[in-house]
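Lab notebook: predicted structure, single chain.

Context: the supervisor wants predicted structures on file for every construct in the current expression panel, including those that have not yet been purified. This is the next one on the list. No modifications to the sequence; it matches the entry in the shared construct table.
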Amino acid sequence: MLRFCLTASLTATVALLCGCGNPEKPAPKPAAQAATAAAPAPPPAAADARRAIVCFGDSITAGFGLDAGQSFPDLLQQDLDRRTLRYRVVNLGVSGDTTQDGLARVFMALAEKPAIVLLELGGNDGLRGIPLSITQANLAQMIEQFQGAGARVVLAGMSLPPNYGPAFIQKFEALYKSLAAKYRVTLIPFLLEGVGAHDEFMQRDGLHPNAAGARQVEALVMRTLTPLLK
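Prediction complete. Output recorded below exactly as produced.
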């Protein structure tokens, strides 16, 4: 009996030691999981080699109040594609932006290495009564940075509602002409030409083009850009 107990005890001890020294092997992965782990990563997407046209502006550029695909930058891309012109349009419009806001995010436009920049800012400055000297100085800095990066600048002029008075409106419109002459940039005197103050082309707020108005704006932009694209 004693021999049996000692033998049993020794056997249990050996089994315990063997168990500690040889932990269980992990269960093999299911075949599907192993195949997934071994699958190669997809190749990175090819970079778009087309030259960039950056539309840098406020709510008019952003397409405020319009459905997706109806903003004038979206329509511009469609127009370029129909003409087989190899440019990509980058919409960097932000609703509510002033020229100071735009100046703070110029780096976003420069990161696109633009060939052309359509600069559409200043309208919100005028609506808020920001001194014209500040608006002009901010636009000048943006133009200088874009030109310094090798981009051609198209300056989109704006106007203001009649209640701002003819004297202030005249000075506001003149600052775009002055900047265009100083920096020798292409000027669109009034981006909403034929659209502003026309109910059939404007949203109810009287400030933003509707879908039909956006098509008119795009046509004006395309006419202006065409000589620069050749």
